[in-house]
Amino acid sequence: MFKGYTILKEKKVEYPGYLKEIKPSFEMVFPLATNQSIKSFLTVNIGDKVKVGSLLGYCDEEVYVPFYSSVSGVVTDFKILEYCTNKKVLHVVVENDFKDEKQLLFEPFDFNCSDSEELIEKARISGLVGLSGAGFALYGKYLSKNIDTLIINGIECEGYLSSDYANVLENTADLMQGALILQKMARARRVVIALKETFKDQIELVREKINAAEKYSHIEIYESADNYPAGWEKVLTNRITKRDFDVYTTECGVIVNNVSSAIAISQIFKSGLPLIEKIVTVAGDGISESSIVKVRIGTMVSEVINDVLEYGPDEVDILCGGSLMGAKMESADFPIAGPYNGITVLKRRSIVEQPCQQGCTICNDGCYLKLDVLRLLNFCRENNLRKALEYNVLQCVECGICSYDCPSDIDVRNYIRKVKYQLL
Length: 424
Description:
Blueprint: E1 20-22, E2 27-31, E3 40-42, E4 49-50, E5 55-59, E6 65-68, E7 73-82, E8 88-96, H1 116-126, H2 138-141, E9 149-153, H3 163-170, H4 172-186, E10 190-196, H5 200-212, E11 220-224, H6 233-241, E12 254-258, H7 259-271, E13 277-283, E14 291-296, H8 301-305, E15 316-320, E16 327-329, E17 342-347, H9 362-365, H10 373-381, H11 385-390, H12 401-405, H13 412-423
Parallel strand pairs: 1-14, 9-10, 9-12, 10-11, 13-17
Antiparallel strand pairs: 2-8, 3-5, 4-7, 5-6, 7-8, 13-14, 15-16, 15-17
Helix pairs in contact: 1-4, 4-7, 10-13
């Protein structure tokens, strides 16, 4: 029977009321890539002195995205390392002098004194990307016209991950300020903050802010069911506005941004500095202790997880992101970057695929897009590109429900992904 969702067995990491602080390393490493582009341009040379906020390079393939240092020190090397797209990309290595000397992108300012175009330009300069995994340049969405609804998404429906949840509790005032900033950038009439109905403390904090100040009184709260993929923007947009779109939410007059992105834009405009640290969930059955950490961008993941690894490096799978949509990395030899909201470490298991139970249709039942996943699987296994296209393989967003629910342990998403990448 069609459901369009699943209930995850992985429990959220509990927020203990504080964030575990990870100190900056002696050697910090910064990727010059986005999830959409690895074509980058360096603006530094080996031996150059940099500060917190110094420009290291940028991507400028479709939209401009600059990359900044989160520490002060000296550029010592350039490396090719894995990024969360599983592509090898250029990284800048900075030897940290631990002085944290700063170089402002712009003077801190009151957003109320700027118009939408000025705010969009400041967002462009800041290099802020979406902070929930996709990593699109934030300002790019706000170049669209005729936007009437802004959705601030805090549902965070993946198992284990509690980064957005903790960020909202830690920085509620910045969330509310960020919502107003993004509303002004979008020129939207309606603002909705979407939160999970089970997170009563989070909802109460946001509601208190709305009730306490007239400037927030127009902001709505949408309480979402606790299932997966309730936080996917296609699901969320339809449930809140009753609208649909093909590729981008802006097609139907809606912008969706993550709660952490709203918090970050407020902090960036107040400080004049780029985003230099992230709240990241470190979790999974491959480590001895899960936690929610505050860590500088550029810190190697190996330094974040080595003390809590329960098994040897060859006995675990390290995912950049959550357990369903996270990218499986070759090793922990990659740094924290802006889009990353979780590092999931799972004990490696030898799973033997069983024959597909052709009549069970569980993979079809969970697909929100109502794709014929069972037939798609068969065509993708045969590498039949023509038939896969006929059955809308490119519409799949790789949410992973089909693989997660499959009683035969078939990695359905991986078969579909391989065909998709041949066609894109």
